[in-house]
Design brief:
The protein is mainly alpha-helical. It is built from 10 helices and no strands.
């Protein structure tokens, strides 16, 4: 534990030192601002109501996209039909074979500028893994359990609450946790091209006016949110801990 903490502290000291030296070498705040200025900008955003408002908008969009992906994935994952699965699998292959920017472009054509495009893009990117995790978790229920419930039948409610949910949780929760972390990043990227609010829009606006410190500051917040969610999910034993040095 001490070695791991020491390594992290050493890494960040070297990282910021390298950043500062690169800032001196490049000598252009527009391209490579100094780390202390970026940190001051990052701190100042905590009291920036516009930033907090747009952060909330991105969070809502990402959660809506995540909910739709999980809800529809869970419903479809319960359909135990091989032909239906093959059809969904082919659709998933289409989803996963195209980069994110393709879906953002198509969503702009279909839904126009706004939240629908962001939510749709988030859904498209998260649905495949959520659906497959549910489908395979249910498919791989041991036949011994199925035969046992035929011999000793229980109510549908008890089957779902006392067996099915506890059984599939270890398969689904890690995927759901990773999807939650990814949803914020996906929504922010979609907002960059498709909305006039949200974190992605702020990045686009800052890029237009070459406000590099603002871009770096928002990037730090995206990093912090991602690592904070990882920390929470690890404390809940949903995601595995990093290897200790």
């Amino acid at each position: 534990m001490k070695n791991s903490l020491r390594f992290k502290i050493t890494f960040w000291i070297i990282f910021f030192l390298f950043w500062y030296l690169m800032g001196i070498r490049i000598n252009s705040p527009t391209i490579f601002p100094y780390p202390h200025k970026v940190l001051l900008k990052t701190i100042s955003l905590l009291s920036d109501t516009e930033f907090l408002y747009n952060l909330g908008i991105t969070a809502i969009r990402s959660l809506v996209g995540l909910f739709l992906a999980f809800f529809i994935g869970f419903i479809l994952g319960n359909i135990k039909n091989e032909k239906f699965y093959v059809g969904i699998r082919n659709i998933i292959d289409i989803f996963q074979s195209n980069p994110l920017i393709i879906w953002i472009t198509l969503a702009l054509l279909w839904f126009g500028f706004g939240s629908k495009t962001v939510i749709f893009t988030t859904f498209i990117m998260l649905f495949p893994n959520l659906y497959l995790s549910v489908y395979y978790a249910l498919k791989n229920i041991p036949t011994e359990y199925i035969e046992l419930f035929k011999i000793y039948p229980i109510s549908k409610k008890n089957y779902i609450t006392k067996f099915l949910i506890p059984y599939i949780k270890p398969f689904i929760l890690p995927v759901l946790a990773n999807s939650t972390i990814s949803s914020f990043k996906i929504s922010a990227m979609a907002e960059f091209f498709a909305t006039n609010n949200g974190i992605g829009f702020l990045l686009s606006y800052a890029k237009t006016f070459l406000n590099t410190e603002y871009i770096y500051a928002i990037s730090i917040y995206l990093f912090i949110i991602s690592k904070f969610l990882e920390y929470i999910f690890r404390k809940m034993n949903i995601l595995k801990e990093d290897l200790k040095l």
